[in-house]
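Journal club side-thread
Mid-discussion, someone asked how the predicted structure for our own chain would compare to the paper's figures. Pasting it here so we can look after the session.
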Amino acid sequence: MSLVEVADLTVGFGELRAVDGLSFRLERGAALALVGESGSGKSTVASALLGLHRGTGAYVGGSVQVAGIDVQEASDDELRRLRGARAAMVFQDPLSSLDPYYAIGDQIAEVYRVHTRASRRAARARAVEVLDRVGIPDAARRSRSRPHEFSGGMRQRALIAMALACEPGLLIADEPTTALDVTVQAQILDLLHTLRE
């Protein structure tokens, strides 16, 4: 079975059809890029993979299966278990995805605890481990920093670390390099490639 199987996906918002009849498969260890202009439905597709349109009033048709779970038919509990543990998303704007009041390490540790029921100490250690893995220098110390104390590239790395905390089989990156300069964009893309391998 493929890691992701999408068949005839259609997503509409009122009269607007954002996605119309998209089908694709993604095998474990593979990468797939959706390319298109702004407003072409890329983020809409990414959200559909995790059932994030549920309760928004959007129409979602077709079939979406991720890690053996039918996203359309899954209960809210099944979707919660899917998100973070089996599939995780890195959103394009780290400033709006990270809570400005809490240390980066605490935010990562919280995600890990929710999905694994690990102790606070184990979750803290895991946060430092994944921050180190994504290339945050002096990860133990920097894990106590708040988002505004990180550069744009470091915030994006922190979001990737948060997504990786539970070792998901699928990482969805929704334009993760949009607000970064060209050099940092290349570093983030290299990091994602290395992590996939």
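Post-session note: The helical segments are 42-49, 76-82, 94-97, 104-116, 120-133, 139-142, 152-164, 182-196.
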